[in-house]
Every structure is written in structure tokens, then in C-alpha cells.
Amino acid sequence: MTFDISKINIPPNPGIYLMKDSDKKIIYIGKAKNLKNRVRSYFLKNQNYKTQKLVENISDIEFVLTDNESEAFLLESNMIKKHRPKFNIELKDQQRYTYLRISNEKYPRLLVARRTHDGKFLGGGKIFGPFMQGSSKLLTIGTLRKAFQIRICKQLPKKVCLEYHLGNCEGPCEFKDAQDKYLQHVSALEEVLKGKNQTQIFTKKLEEEMTQAAASQQFERAKDIRDTLIRLGSLQTKQKMEYVENSDEEYFGIKDKDQTVTVMNFRMINGVMRDSDKFFFDLVGDNNFSNFLFQYYTIHKIPKFIIVSELPENKLLLESLLSEQAGFSVEIIYPQRGKKKDIINLILKNIALIHSKGGDLGLIELKETLHLSAIPGIIECFDISNHGDDFAVGSMSRFVDGKPNKSGYRKFKIKTVSGRDDFAMISEVIKRRYLRLLEENSQLPDLILIDGGKGQLNAALKSLQSLGLHLDCISLAKENEEIFVPNQKNPIVISKDRPSLKILQYARDETHRFGVAYNRTIRKNQIK
Asked: The whole model's pTM is what?
């Protein structure tokens, strides 16, 4: 069945879109200046065969907003390298952008950064880029090396070589004063590669050389310098969306909805941004932003600067703990204005997009994790309460949009089963409940939840089948909180901190409480 594009909210902003199949696997990643126009275009008629096959496999679409189309372009490239979607298989150029590397040798060299198939950088040192325009030859091997007196020899010789005599290197291999100045040259080169003020100084120097070359009728030389100046323009382009291994800044946006907190982060180095991650936690007990950050950095590299949309509790203590753990000073910053504030606003915009999908976040997660046919806006949960052979009742709780709808709760006296046969009792209760709804032409639930294991689930499924109903039906086994689904041998286990599992647990516990209360009432009346 073709994905219904009208059911999702598509922003008109620039960004990337991640198309997923029924298994929630990313099958295609694309970019757009206007996400709404581009994504809707996939669902028009008269598409080519490949596009038709893609659309047939779409089950969900996720969006990540960017500030502009250029950033979307870079983020798309990085995400394709990371996820390798099957419908992006024809995209074979993994080196669309040039990266430069300053090696970590005693006297560093400037090199073109090489990458593995999955986008990882080879060799040690500092990575700079991406640089989008033009070839890197004049920048790396030519002008930049000469301008900053950077050596090109693979191994440091004992005596100066031809490059020294040509004026391209000051000879740190032999001369003490050259050794002392070498790191200053490297530092100035880094400033240029980062796009800071030194770029203007270097550019001015080249402009003077170009004027002198033209005046002395060295027109070829003047043309080469002009081309280099054009390419240097790309150094000042602020590219944010590309993955680099280590990070010196990390950004966090945080918003809560219905007592569930959404956290989204971007990792950055030298103004270059990695793909984002999303996290969720409930506002229960001591769960707060400060605790989240500390737990997060027990398994992630700690940056020097953590930029946040709101200051966490115990900020000073958290900074002290992270600084001690990292071995350097860590600062948590709440920006009021400027580029950092713009990035935080971008993250908050993405979180708002997640929330605008509609429905509780846990319900959306249930649909994705359990591969349900729809977001379970209405959940009906069943339990059997036994107390000896003579006292057995069925109970049902009803949840609407993740919250109890107590007027919809139902209780059942077991009529056709004697003894302790939970499977038969579940079968009876399910058949009675949904036969009645069919006769009344009442609304059916989006999800049926059975308290129990695989046996209880199969009993419920047989009853539904006898009524000709094909509703999503699962069971939740309390001992290990395992979720059993039809036609799957092994249970699904959802992390205990996920909002999706908490909804199921809440419904199950409510049903159990309601059933026990009803059982107790029957026993009291019997005694009287």
C-alpha cells in the first residue's frame, strides 16, 4: 500500500529527508531547498521506474532541518556515507568535498585528507574542511605550503633540500631558528584553514603578488594567483553539516511535552556539524537535564564547550565533574545571541517538528518499534484475575492518546470456563468484547494489549480471527517485560526508559488493578 503523504506534516524549510521502509530501515536520503515541495513530488504520477519502486517501499519519512541548502547538501552526503541506503546505491562519489589534514608530526605537513569507504579519515592530526570549490592542488601542494613555509618531505632530512634553496621552506631539519618559527607558521596556516582573520592577511599578500606579476608581464603567474584567490573564497564559507571524528563543541536543545522530555544534539568542530541524535526521558523523580548530560558523557567524548537551550541544574557541579573526567576545563554555555544562539534555535525547531507529528511520543515509538499499522491512539488492555477455582474475572482498561479513559473500562464475569484456564478465559473475554462492538457498530481500538505471554496472545488472536477481525494485537509478559507479537518467534524487548514501554506498563497495571478490585468485590459479596 502506498504511503499516505497527506498524513504527515512536511515543513517548507531546507533540510534533508530520510525515507524508511516497514522495518524502519533508511532506504533513501535526499536534500531539498524546500522539503515540502520536494517530498510531495515523489508521490505524483508519471515517475520513473526507480522512483516508483522507492515510493512503494516507503513506510515513514523523517526530516532534519538546516539553515540553508548548502548545509543540507553536506549533511545529506554525510548521512549517506553513514547509513548506505539501498536507493542511494548509484551515488558512488564519496569524495565530493576536499578535506585537508595537518599531520601530528614534530614538524607537521599539510596533506589532502584521505578517507575510508565509510567516510572515516585516515592518519593522525587535525582535519579541516570541507572545501567545496575547485581543485585542492594549488592550495595544498602549491601556494599554501609555500606561503607558510610548510615542508613537503615525507621524512625529515639531516640537511636542507632544494625546497630551502627555492625559498619554499626555512629548513627546520637543520636550522634552530627555523625550528622555533615552524609551529608559528603552522598556527597561522590553521587560522587560514579555519577561515579566521589570517585568511584576509594571506589574501592581501596574494593580491599584492598578483599585481606585481601583472606589472612585470608574468601573466601566467598572475592568472594562477587569481585562480587561487577564487578557490580561497571557499575557505571562508561556513560549512556546518559534516562529520569529523572529534568534537570541541556540542549543542543541546531540550523541550518537554506531556511530561516526556525530548533532547536533540549537534556535535561540532571548527564550525563543522555532525548528524544529530535524539533522546527521550520522562520527568520522573530525579530525572532532569543535568542527570541526562552527566550520563551522556559517561559514554561519549567530552567537548570543551557544551552549548544548551537552557541551563541544567547544578551547573557548576556538573562542569567540575566533567572537567575532572575530561582532564581539561569544560564550560556549559547558554547563548543569548549570535551564531551559537542560531544553532540552538535550529535544534529547537527540529524538536518542534518531532512534536508536530501528532500524538504522544511514546505512541509514535510504539508504532515504529512494533511495526503497527497505525499510531495506537486507542489501546484496550485485557487481564484475567484468578482467585481459586471459583473466582475468576476479566478486566479491560481503555487508553486514549496514551492516557486512561476510565469511562471506557470494562469488567467481565467468566461464563464459559471452569477451573484455572487463562487461555480459554482470554479467548472468551476477547470474543465477547469485540462481538459486541461489531453488533453495535462501535469504534474498534488501534491496538489490543494482552497481559501475558505467547499463549495468551495466541488465544486472543484465535478469537479475533473467528470474528473476521484483523486488529493489531500484542502481549506483555510481566516477568521480563517481553512483548510478543504475531508471527514472530522471539519477543521484542524495549528499553525500560523508553516512553513506549511505559505506556504499555501503565495500561497493563491499570487493567490488573481494576480486575483485582472487581475480583475482591465478588468474593466479599459471596461471603455475605
From this structure: 0.39
